[in-house]
Every structure is written in C-alpha cells, then in structure tokens.
Amino acid sequence: MKHVTRKATRHVNQNEGLIFEKSSPGKAAWKLPPLDVPDVDTAKLLGASERKDSANLPEISEIEIIRHFTRLSTWNYAIDLGMYPLGSCTMKYNPRVNEVVSRLDGLANGHPYQPERISQGALRIIKTLSECLTEITGMDAITLQPAAGAHGELTGLLMVRSYHQSKGNPRKKVLIPDSAHGTNPATAAMVGYSVENLKSNEQGMVDTAALASQMNEDVAALMLTNPNTLGVFEQEIHKIADIMHAKGGLLYMDGANMNALVGKVRPGDFGVDVMHLNLHKTFSTPHGGGGPGCGPVAVKQILEPFLPKPVVVTKADGTLAFEYVRPQSVGRVRAFYGNFGMFIRALAYTLANGPDGLRETTEDAVLNANYIRKGLEGVFDLPYSTPTMHEVVFSDRQQAKKGVKTMDIAKRLIDYGFHPYTTAFPLIVPGAMMIEPTESESVEEMDLFIEAMKSIAAEVEEDPQLVLDAPHSTRVSRLDETAAARKPVLRWKG
Amino acid sequence: MRYLPKSPADRAALLKAIGARSIDDLFAPIPAEYRLKRDLKVPRQMAESEIVDWFRERSRENGDGYATFLGAGVYYHYRPVIIDSLISRGEFLTAYTPYQAEISQGTLQAIFEFQTMICELTGMDVANASMYDGSTGAAEAVMMAVRMTGRRSVAAARSLHPEYREVLGTYAWHQGMPLSLIPFTSNARLDLKALEKAITPDTACVLIQSPNFFGSIEDVAAVAEIAHKHGALLVVSIAEAVSLGIVEPPRQADIIAMEAQSFGVPMGFGGPFCGVIATREQFVRQMPGRLAGQTTDRSGKRGFVLTLATREQHIRREKATSNICTNQALVALMATIFMTVYGKVGLRELAKQNLAKAAYATEQFSKHARVLFPGAPRFHEFVVETSEDPYAINSRLLGHKIVGGFPLKKFYPELGNAALWCCTELTTRTAIDTAAGLVAESERSVRSANEAVAQEEVTR
Average pLDDT in the A208-230 region? Predict the structure, then answer.
C-alpha cells in the first residue's frame, strides 16, 4: 500500500464455515426441565398432522455457537468501530442504556393482550414518546404503529387517500421529485396512485414553476424529502406548500433526513401535512444489520381521524387505554401496536438529550457535514454548491476520467478503515458519493476520513488499478454479484 | 450532551475551518420565519441513572412477574441467554444493511443460515431475509399471489388471526383486491364446502393459518387440493413457529408467511417481531424483501451478497415487488441463534413439552367447563367456554398474579364467553391447576346462583 492508513491495521481473523457444516448428531446446546405434567403420545394427539421427519437444523454445543456467531460478527464493520458515513442512513451512536431499559422484565415480557390495568407502563411509554415526537415535528397527532420508514410512507399515503376519499375523490397521482428514495414511488404504487416525476432545478431543489404547472386536482400529494437527498433544505418550502394546498393537495414529508432539523425547525411549522420519522435513523435505535426499524407517522389535525387504530387515550380516571372505535381509520397496518421495543429506545434517547441536547445534536450533525464538505471540496467534484445541511453529495466526475467510479472509491475506503459512503444515490447525480457523518464523529475521526479520501484521490491519479481492485484488506475480495443473481444459491444444501 | 464527542473548542475550530461565524450561519438556508426560537417542550435532559429509574417504574406498572395464559399470536417461550450475548455485539447491533458485502460477511452469512433453517422447517425451497412481522408478511404473500396469478380476489379464513385479517384488509383496500371470508366448522377447521362455493376463477389465493387462531391444525392437504383445482395458490400463515417442531409443515402451500417471534424473540408488548416469507423456487422473483445469496470472490472464495435486488424498490421504484426496505434483521438473528441452540432434536422436544402442557390443561379445564372445537388436532392453544364472562374470571386470576386466556368475543361475538388459552413449556402445572380451580369455582357459583333462582321460582 503506497499511502499509509492511520486509522486501521490488518489483523488476523478467524475462518468459519456455515453452522450446518459444524453439526454432528448427538451434540446439543439445549436442556429442558423435567416435564411436570404427564407425557403425551404425539401420534395419538396429532394423528396425520404429526411431523414425521425432523427439520434438519444444526446439532451443536453452546461454546461452538458462541464462537460461530462471534467469529461472524468480527467480519462486520459497525458504528462501534468507526465512522459509518452512509448518506441518508444516519448511522449515529446507538446508546447502550437504550438496550438495558428495553430489556427490563415488565417491558420485554409484556404481552400485547394483557389487561390494560397491568399495561399502564407500556401505555405511558407510547403516550410520552408520542407527545415528544409531535412536539419535535410540530404536528398534531401521531401513530407509532408502522414498523419501518417505508411502512410509515404506506400508512401516510393511506391516510392521504382516505382524506381525499372523504372529500369525494381519492385523486389519481402522487408527485415525487427525481431525487427521492425508491421507497416513495414503490409506496405510491401500493396505495393505488400513479407516480409523476418532478424535476429538480439547478440548485437541486424542487422547481416550483414545474410544480405549479404539474399540480392539479388529480394530484393527491407531493412526497418531499426535506432536507432533500442532496442534503439541501428546500428554501422555497412555503411556496411548495402553498402550491399544493391551493389545489387541495397535501404535502407529505419523508422524514429520513430529520437529523438536520430536530430542535431547529419543525415540519409542521413550514406547511407539512403528514410525515414519517425513522426512529432507527434520527432517534438512535440500532440498525441491527438491516432492522428492526420503526416509522411513526405524524399528521396535522385534518388527518387525525384517519390514523391507524388503536390510538392511546386518557380515560376519565386518568388511566391510559387503547381506543378502537375509530370509524374513519385506515385500519391496522400491523398486528398489535408496532415495534414497541424501538419506542422504548427512542424515548430513552430523547430523555437523555432533552431540548438542549436535541438541538446541540442537530447542530453538530450539520457542523460535521459542512466540515467534511470543506475538507473535500476541490478534491472531489461538488455538483451542487447549494448550502449543505446534514449530508453532502460529491460525484466521481474527476476520478471517472481515470476509469475509477464511485463504487471503486467506496471499496477503497474500506482499506482505510471506514465504511463506504452511499454510492450512486441520489439518481440525479451521476456517480454520486453521498456522505453523512452524523453528530457522532469527533474531529479526529473526521480528519482521518478526509485524509483517507484525499489519499484515495491521489491514488486514482497515480495508480488507478489499486483502487479498481479494492478492497485489498478484507477477508473476501469483491464478490461476484452477477453470478449470485444469475444462478441464485439462497440456501445451504449439504 | 454526553453522546456528542466535541469540546467547545472543537466546535469553534470547526466553525473557523468552515468559515462560518456561528452555528446559526449553517442554518441560514432555513427561512427565518420557520426557525424555532424556543426550546422544544420535551422532558429535560436526564442522567443515565434517572432514565433507568424512569423505565424501571414503567416496567413495574406493566405486569412484571405475572404468569400468562395468553397466546393469540404472541408466545411466551424461554429465551436462551446466549441470544442476547450475541446480538448485543456491536458488530451485529450497530451495522447497517449489508450492501457492502466485503465488510458485512457476518450479517450476510447469518441471513443465509436463517434462510436455510426456515426452508428446513417449512419444507419450502427459498425463504427471504425477513419481513416486519407475521401480519404484514401474510398481506405481502397475498399480494405476491395476486402478481403471480394475474387474478385479484382473495379467500381468507375467518380463523386467521383477526389482526392479520385487519392488516390484510388495509393492504388490499386500495389495490382493488376483493376479500371474502371463509367460515370455520365445529372443529374450528376451515369450512371446505364454503370454500368450494366462495372460490372463483378470479381467486388468486386461499389464505389460512395453521395452527389457526383457535389453535386447531388445519387439514392443509384438503385446502390445497381445492385451491389448486381452481387454479388458485395456497398461502399458509404460521403464527406459532415452535409448532413446526412437531406439526407437519404445510408442504402443499405455495407460499408460507411465518412469524418467528416464538424463536427467542421477547413478547415485548407486541414487537419488534420477525416475519418471513418462504416459497417454491420458481416463484422467487416475485418475492418481496431482501435475499442473501452465495457467490464467490475474485479468488474463488465462498462469500455472500444481497441478491436479486431487481425485485426491490431501490432499483425498480414503482415497479418493485414491495416497498419494503428496512426489515427485521437483528430479530432474524435472534431466531437463527434460537434455532441453532435447539437444533434438530431440541426443537421437537420443546414442541412436545408445549403439546403436553396444553393437553394437561385442556383435560383440567374440561372437567369444569366446555372446551370448544373438539375433533381436530391442536398444538398448544385451546378454547374454553365458561358460564361467566371470562373478563370477570380473568380479573380474579390477576389477584393470583396470573393472566388468564384471551376473551374471544372482541373478535368473534358469536363465541360469547369463550376464551383462548395457551400453554408453553414455561407454563407450570401449579399455574394450570390454579387457573382451572378458579374456573371450577366460577362454574360452581354460577350453578348455585342458577339453582337458587330456580328454587325461588319453584317456591313462588
């Protein structure tokens, strides 16, 4: 390696096969207590429904299970190891107290159908978090039921549709900027809306003239991410909201980038009618390798009757209860009440911050993104010079001249001890490199990142093949994704 | 703020480097009239010890220390301690979706193992990396059947979990998917004659749950035969994963939508759980959700990647098979570790203990009250009809720190005073005897009250 990486050093890690390859008959990691009731004749009880074979699950001892999954874990990068600058994903610190309180017996072992009398603790958590989130968003009401951001989008658009339906016409289309997340159009399709693309202007923002010309009584809503996926705040947001509202349309905000706004500005105050939050982004619940998430949807008063049921209400005696009689509700979007364990974590995060901490967090997130921008400007192409909020999008234009693309630079970052940034998104930036440091990075970590990026840019000039072949330090080199898709092997077969 | 790694001097230095005078400069793009000029009205910043205390208090208010006979889609099973030891490792807990395969092999291999185990359990060829939960998984499985058949309507069992039915209704509503409900018979199994009548050339699929909401195991082969005869697919929802240790999996199904909560996932007041969809190999390209696949690196070494992404929203946008992005990866890891702990033999033994506890409880309850729906095999849930309102009985049981069965009239008004009871390996004989004793007491007091009334009428 020509350029020295200060952040990471190579070290040995363990090889490990598939768990099935370690199995052998007679090994076991389980032990059941003796049965305190009479044993049963399964054939007699189950008849033809009895399972004849046994599922071919591994047979293995406890120490081997610990080693297996621990070894696998060491093959992952994680926030706990360092900066994870995935734009749009808000990979911030996941506080450990969240994990402790979510495992308290009464909360972890609460059954969703246990009597409300002995569910007051859970109901209080739902109510307190709901109040915090409506205040943070500046909205009037909220549902915590959706299990993830995309599920929140579905819930939000269902409510939009019900709202228009209640006025006699569900309308036909949803407008979506070309910079939007893929979940937006996919969601609109699930709710029976056709999708109309909205072009961005040269500042990377909504072209309000185009919006005005595309907006009509067939349009149910505009799905807007703000700050958008370029990390740019839609400065004409009031005009956007006015254009929508003038024709009876609603403004939906994808809250994926709420980490740029908390405590500084409230979507409810700038004209948003309905929005979802991602508790696994802004509110620090762990991503866990892809989930679980939680996607609460906050709404203005006009949409409150359409919230999924049940909702939590306070009874005359001051106790809390679920209210199921909601005639205009869109219905349930999930069994029970949502990813309750994530509510606990998000509330613990909010309590740990308080109003001052939440504001400071947002300020640091924006400060960090601007520092990264400053550090890399001139080294990488910055397609939009509009002010940066919580994330910055560069492009590989300079490096592409040498045949090196955003994904190659991303892979090379791995060798420098960092997780890659988000590649090739948003789609409006060819060769996008989308960087979101979050508030969790220290000056030292960011300086190492900037140094690594600069070093890679130099490598592209001096020895592009080095970058094209990256990563060089991982236990596997670049994997053949084409082969994986052409002839899918989706399970182990002995 | 203790999570923020910056000193005041650091902040000043960063601002200087950027060329900003103050932090407010950075928020200048936000129109001034919208900028918040006050503190958010949320509770003040708390110390860690205060946070722990606050939640301990909530935990105490939340039925801490009660034995439960509740099931109904959420099951209280023992969670081996190594599950939490392993999933608490930061490398699993604080990693993102494994799009960058070279530094995500741990998560990817674990998903591949999860997919394999789900296939082994269900008898299906392929399983995805997870769905939000059993209810949304079932709805997505139905939408998958609609895409595959080009038909639009759905025949769903009334004995499907009522909340799953509601979720399906929500999903189906704007997709123009007419939904017909198929009743159950006196043994709680699907009414096959009614199914025959309800099924039409536009029926995309028949959706049942087995064991169903009442705990009865469906005659899946018979349902499959009817569905397939009419060119419809069979979707089977499984809410109790532990049943697969001893109950024949619904191999005749075309799609299985499962809830894996029973596999080491806390009841957690209803979530997060772990849905998963499994199906036949030829249907894989219509599947929603992420899939991990095996491949090789440049030196031929085995590795894993997320694959067949052309089904997914980030590539296909409005033409995707679903809008799902984030799933339940860490919960799927819990399930994977659970399945590994119990393994081939343990899962069967575990399921057998559940069967035995429920069989004993059924026998005890049937001595005093009516156990409904005889004549079909069941796993670990059973329906008890009492003379008294089950809410009243449950209220007395709470005094014994026991949560009684789930009163069914909320979802099935015609079942009156019936309640759904569940036993798992964690249900003790003592708790069963106490509950059955209270039911017996209730029946006696109703009987003597009735006799007193009758006596009074005779006297009059």
Answer: 96
| The residue to which tokens 């990691």 are assigned | A29
In this predicted complex, what is the ipTM?
0.97
DSSP letter assigned to residue A338: S
A452, B77 Cβ separation under 8 angstroms: no
Q: B292-296 and A173-177 as β-strands: parallel, antiparallel, unpaired?
A: unpaired
**Token representation of residue B264:** 């080491």
| B14–A20 CB contact, under 8 Å | no
CA angle, corner A303, sides to A302 and A308, nearest 5?
A: 155
Question: Which residue in B214, B198, A328 sits closest to B206, CA to CA?
Answer: B198
Alpha-carbon distance of B229 to A473, in angstroms, equals: 56
Residues near A117 by beta carbon (within 8 Å), at least 6 away in sequence: A319, B398
Measured CA distances, A474 to A58, A288, A365, B310, B329 (Å): 28, 21, 30, 27, 23
HSE-CB at B404 with a 13 A cutoff on CA atoms is 28
Q: Considering chain B, what percentage of its residues have pLDDT values greater than 70?
A: 100
Identify the residue whose tokens are 């080294």.
A379
What contacts B132, CB < 8 A, 6 or more positions away?
Answer: A147, A148, A151, A292, A334, B273, B275, B324, B327, B328
Strand, helix or coil at B19? coil
* Report field, pTM of the whole predicted structure over 0.80: yes
Distances (CA, A) of B453 to A37, B36, B196: 39, 70, 47
> Is the model's pLDDT at A76 over the cut of 80?
yes
**For chain B, which residues score pLDDT lower than 50?**
none
Determine the Cα–Cα distance for residues A219 and A196; give it in Å rounded to an integer.
Answer: 9
pLDDT computed for residue A2 by the predictor: 55
DSSP single-letter state for residue A265:
B
Give the amino acid at B43.
P
CA distances from A289 to A78, A280, B57, B130, B299 (A): 9, 11, 31, 12, 26
- From residue B280, alpha-carbon distances to B74, B100, B231, B254, B284 in Å are 27, 28, 16, 6, 7
The separation between CA A431 and the C-alpha centre of its own chain, rounded to angstroms, equals 22
Q: Between chains, do A368 and B14 touch, taking CB under 8 Å as contact?
A: yes
DSSP secondary structure string, A46-108?
Answer: HGGGB--S--------HHHHHHHHHHHHTTB--TTTS---BTTT------HHHHHHHT-HHHH
Q: Which two tokens stand for residue A344?
A: 């606990």
Chain segment A316-350, per-residue pLDDT in tens: 999 999 999 999 999 999 999 999 999 999 999 99
d(CA B150, CA A301): 39
Contact yes or no for A58/B343 (Cβ under 8 A): yes
Q: How distant is the Cα of A434 from the closest Cα of chain B, in angstroms?
A: 15
The beta strand positions in B53-173, using DSSP E, are 67-68, 126-127, 153-157
- With beta carbons less than 8 A apart as the criterion, state whether A135 and A205 touch: no
A389 vs chain B: nearest CA distance in angstroms? 7
Strands B418-422 and B67-68: unpaired
Measured between beta carbons, the chain A residues lying within 8 angstroms of B137 are none
> Is there a contact between A410 and A433 (Cβ–Cβ < 8 Å)?
yes
Whether the CB-CB separation of A287 and B95 falls below 8 Å is answered with yes
Average pLDDT over residues A294-315: 98
Please check whether residue B319 touches A, CB under 8 A: yes
Q: From the CB of residue A401, how many other CB atoms can be counted at a distance below 10 Å?
A: 11
Q: How far is B162 from chain A (nearest CA, A)?
A: 9
Dist CA A460 CA B404 (whole Å): 68
The CA distance from A109 to B424, in Å, is: 14
Residues 128-187 of B with CB under 8 A from A: 129-130, 132-136, 161, 163-164, 166-167, 169-171, 173-176
